[in-house]
Design a protein that fits this description.
Oligomer: heterotrimer
Number of strands of chain C: 4
Chains: A mainly alpha, B alpha/beta, C mainly alpha
CATH architecture of one domain in chain C: Orthogonal Bundle
Number of helices of chain C: 12
Order of helices and strands of chain C: HEEHEEHHHHHHHHHH
Number of helices of chain A: 11
CATH architecture of chain A: Orthogonal Bundle
CATH superfamily of chain A: MetI-like
Largest sheet of chain C: 2 strands, antiparallel
Helix content of chain A: over 70%
Radius of gyration of chain C: 23 Å
Number of domains of chain A: 1
CATH topology of chain A: MetI-like fold
Largest interface: A-C, 101 and 98 residues
Radius of gyration of chain A: 23 Å
Strand order of the largest sheet of chain C: 1-2
């Protein structure tokens, strides 16, 4: 039977998506272009040059900040994703009579509370405990606010999956653990990946909490950049952002390619 | 059989983690003299000066940054630690001292203290130099594009009551203390004002100016001026110099009503891990040649006699560097509670 | 899953958030009932001053008057956050649907493209918008060069630019959740629906939208809550001429040195949003049972 239209092609949506992509990328294009600007002023173009990238190589402060950001992000992502996985499984497959709303609310808290308050009170709390461990303090603080970002995709996926596949699996596999490894985990993998990526990006991006909770030697990149804006942004910031952008492109693109190769095989 | 995706991912992550640890490990190579943790505004510390200090003393300096006095105060008050020296503006020094956040270092007893210009030996916020040594100082006024504005450049009236060609292109700082202190100078009223009549006048002045103001923001003032977004902007002397170097038509104005002066100071927080190194650094800063390196980087004056002769002439002889001797420069003090609350009220209403 | 193992799995999440989030929140709650130390921090006498400040302030001569300043700021912030959410939904839904309708290969590429800008620091991206939107910025220069306008348009430092900045920051937060719910839709369901209903609109209303709703709600939460408390976009793109709640709270801990009021404001916002979330989570199972 012929249909009046192909439901997969909605007129105008393609154009809209293209427009939105342009919108999303406009600042990035500017960012990268001006990283190669010879002039110090981030507005006036004065010829092509790569000396800002060289300046970064010499500027140990900005590199140190970038390293701190990466290390904290990696640790916080791993911790938050694991905790979120356990939590999502408990919420969606578990036996929770009371307390479900409470736990949901608690997990949502880092999303909801204004960051400055979290930042200051966390600092006060750490100081009261006598914890002055720079990077460790930051890792803990970051893990806390990464948990909801990692948890939401996993929880949504679990909700969608329903319990049927797992019910069937239970008849086949002897133990809960094997069921988890063979059925649940592979099905969840994309959602875990999505959650981990979100957590990683959120952690890299965080500035207010990092600014307050950090102590000597643990300045992160966003904090450094924000301070730079006070006294005038130099294209070094553009350059290091371009580098980070390039790294993420390589990272995610290779993950994509790996995925494609596996499916083809 | 493990899913290949997870294995590759784990391996990549592990690899990154290892590389990162190796890199950071290599940089924290232990120096003979120990360490110094400096806490300063971003991009406000001269690399050359730090390198000279490291070479002379063998102390390894690490720098952490913040964006404002207020942030630094909130952090230290909340218990942040690990910093050996921090650079704080003059109006915040008494606050830190009163809250017991700075420790006494008796800078007045240090060998290089004699180099401090007599004018600055008894600074109002630290008269006996018990807590701080000077970093750099400058003035706050405004810079205007003389290619657009042809009128007289001698008064704060141009800023607070702008003529037609400047309306809508005025930039002011984003912090209440800086805007209000300059406004009070224009009105000829005392600083840290608690007089209700004065406060009402101040409020009226700022409200009247508001429609002509484009931004209330202290960041990127130089860029805004050079790009033409603002034609007149409240600015610090060093930034005005930067602006003029990029666009020669900008003039830093020395108003007849007076202007605001400020000085950044180096202090040691209570609980600093490397007190002796901190003291060495403070002493180092009071040598004219050393502080000149810092001046060259940021373009501000120093409080050390004779440091200007180490500067290039286009900086050392510039008008931004040399206020006329008749100019009235007011150093705004730290305000008491009533004034702070009043200022906050005015500022909130202004930014509504 | 048994009760004990459920709680065991939940334990890490509950512990970490309980200790490192709830306790600081209690500190904030305590702060909101204390007196402000004029030099930062809080001091002893317990008082309701911070909460009274929402409505009443002391005039210059010390009399207590009703002040609508803060109510206005809160109202404006809520309005902006709601607008941001609505716009993100209006844009995010078609984009998510478009992506779902593509081939597997193209889907991955598109998702990759949507999330990539995220990897760059929000601060820097927002700053780049200043470069585009200002009078001498690229947008105006382009429009002038094309002869469309003679004088530069005031594209920056107003409510519109703040809204743009907020939508820009939070759009991916809306697209991704909607996409993940729509992705699971069985294409046979859609085809059956199109056999039943003649028009796209009807199919959308009766089939697609109900299925996309959970994703849209998740997206709305992920957008509204942080948008309400955000201060980077408002500060940078608003020119400091309009205060929003995020900047107001920020101010209390920095230049105003009124920590209790900052804490009180935060507690108020948090309470409202949390209430909405908890209510939704209670009613959700009932709704799903009905469906």
């Amino acid at each position: 039977m012929s249909r009046p239209f192909d439901w997969r092609h909605t007129p105008g949506f393609g154009t809209l998506t293209a427009a939105i992509l342009v919108f999303l990328y406009a600042p990035l294009v500017i960012l990268v272009v001006y990283a190669f600007n010879a002039s110090r002023m981030v507005t006036i173009w004065q010829g092509f040059s790569t000396h800002w990238f060289a300046a970064i190589a010499r500027n140990s402060d900005i590199r140190g900040a970038a390293e701190n950001s990466l290390i904290i992000a990696i640790v916080a992502t791993i911790a938050a994703t694991l905790i979120a996985l356990a939590g999502a499984l408990a919420l969606e497959r578990g036996n929770l009579t009371f307390g479900r709303g409470l736990v949901t609310g608690m997990v949502a808290m880092p999303l909801v509370v204004p960051e400055i308050v979290v930042a200051i009170t966390t600092l006060v709390f750490f100081s009261a405990l006598g914890m002055h461990h720079g990077l460790l303090n930051l890792m803990i603080a970051h893990t806390v606010f990464c948990i909801p970002f990692a948890l939401l995709p996993i929880q949504a996926r679990l909700k969608d999956m329903g319990g049927t596949l797992e019910e069937a699996g239970r008849d086949l596999y002897a133990s809960e653990w094997k069921l988890f490894r063979r059925v649940t985990l592979p099905l969840l993998a994309p959602a875990i990946g999505a959650g981990a990526i979100m957590a990683f990006v959120i952690s890299l991006d965080d500035f207010l909490i990092s600014m307050m909770v950090s102590s000597a030697g643990s300045t992160t990149l966003p904090v450094y950049v924000y301070g730079m804006m006070r006294l005038g942004v130099t294209p070094e910031v553009n350059a290091i952002s371009t580098i980070l952008l390039a790294i993420s492109v390589v990272f995610v693109a290779s993950a994509l390619l790996l995925g494609r190769k596996r499916r083809a095989a | 059989m493990k899913t290949p995706k997870i294995t590759t991912l784990t391996k990549t992550l592990a690899g990154i983690l290892l590389a990162a640890t190796a890199l950071t490990g290599a940089e924290r190579a232990f120096a003979d003299g120990g360490e110094l943790h400096l806490y300063n505004w971003t991009d406000y510390t001269s690399d050359d000066m730090i390198k000279k200090f490291e070479k002379e003393t063998g102390i390894k300096v690490s720098i952490d940054t913040y964006d404002s006095n207020e942030t630094a105060l909130a952090k230290i008050k909340s218990g942040a630690a690990g910093y050996d020296v921090m650079i704080i503006s003059n109006d915040f020094v008494p606050i830190f001292v009163k809250q017991g956040l700075f420790q006494k270092v008796d800078a007045g007893e240090m060998p290089n203290f004699k180099n401090v210009d007599p004018r600055w030996q008894k600074r109002p916020w630290d008269p006996n130099a018990e807590y701080t040594v000077p970093w750099v100082w400058g003035t706050t006024s405004y810079a205007v594009d003389t290619s657009v504005y042809k009128g007289p450049t001698d008064s704060l009236k141009t800023l607070f009551d702008p003529p037609k060609e400047l309306q809508g292109k005025v930039g002011m700082f984003g912090s209440p203390s800086e805007v209000i202190s300059l406004a009070l100078v224009y009105l000829g009223k005392p600083q840290c004002n608690e007089n209700p009549a004065d406060l009402k006048e101040l409020n009226a002045l700022l409200q009247k100016q508001k429609p002509f103001v484009k931004v209330y923001n202290s960041d990127g003032t130089v860029e805004r001026q050079v790009a033409g977004e603002t034609l007149i902007h409240e600015q610090w002397s060093g930034k005005a110099l930067n602006t003029r170097q990029q666009k020669a038509s900008f003039k830093y104005v020395y108003p007849k009503e007076g202007m605001i002066g400020w000085m950044d100071n180096v202090a040691v927080p209570v609980g600093a891990p490397d007190l002796e190194n901190a003291k060495k650094f403070m002493n180092f800063l009071m040598d004219p040649e050393n502080i000149a390196l810092q001046q060259k980087y940021t373009g501000y004056q120093s409080a050390i006699a004779g440091s200007n002769k180490f500067l290039p002439s286009d900086v050392g002889d510039s008008p931004e560097f040399n206020p006329p001797s008749t100019e009235k420069i007011t150093f705004a003090p730290a305000c008491e509670e009533k004034a702070t609350r009043a200022y906050d009220k005015i500022w909130t209403a202004l930014r509504q | 899953m048994r009760r004990q193992s459920t709680w065991l799995m939940l334990a890490p999440a509950v512990l970490v958030i309980g200790v490192f989030m709830l306790i600081p929140m209690f500190i904030a709650l305590a702060y909101s009932f204390m007196t402000a130390d004029p030099y930062g921090g809080v001091q002893a006498p317990f008082t309701f001053d911070a909460y009274i400040q929402f409505l009443y302030q002391r005039d210059f001569d010390d009399s207590l008057i009703f002040a609508s300043d803060y109510i206005l700021i809160i109202a404006r912030s809520i309005y902006l956050a709601v607008s941001t959410t609505v716009i993100c939904l209006a844009l995010g839904l078609p984009v998510a649907w478009y992506i779902v309708c593509q081939s597997e290969e193209r889907r991955r590429v598109l998702l990759f493209l949507i999330t990539l800008p995220f990897w760059i620091n929000t601060l820097i991206r927002t700053y780049c918008w200043i470069l585009i939107l200002r009078d001498e910025g690229l947008a105006n220069k382009l429009l002038c060069a094309l002869g469309i306008i003679a004088d530069p348009l005031p594209l920056l430092y107003n409510d519109g630019s703040i809204l743009l900045g907020l939508v820009y920051t939070f759009l991916p937060f809306m697209v991704l959740p909607i996409y993940s719910t729509l992705e699971r839709i069985d294409s046979r369901l859609i085809e059956a629906a199109y056999d039943l209903y003649a028009s796209r609109v009807a199919v959308f209303r009766r089939v697609i939208w109900p299925l996309a709703k959970p994703g849209a709600l998740a997206g709305a939460t992920l957008v509204f809550a942080p948008a309400l408390g955000s201060f980077l976009a408002p500060d940078l793109l608003g020119g400091g001429k309009k205060l929003l709640i995020g900047s107001l709270i920020q101010m209390q801990f920095t230049s105003s040195r009124n920590w209790p009021f900052g804490a009180a404001l935060s507690i108020a916002i948090t309470a409202v949003i949390l209430l909405v979330i908890i209510l939704r989570s209670w009613t959700a199972p009932k709704r799903e049972a009905q469906a």
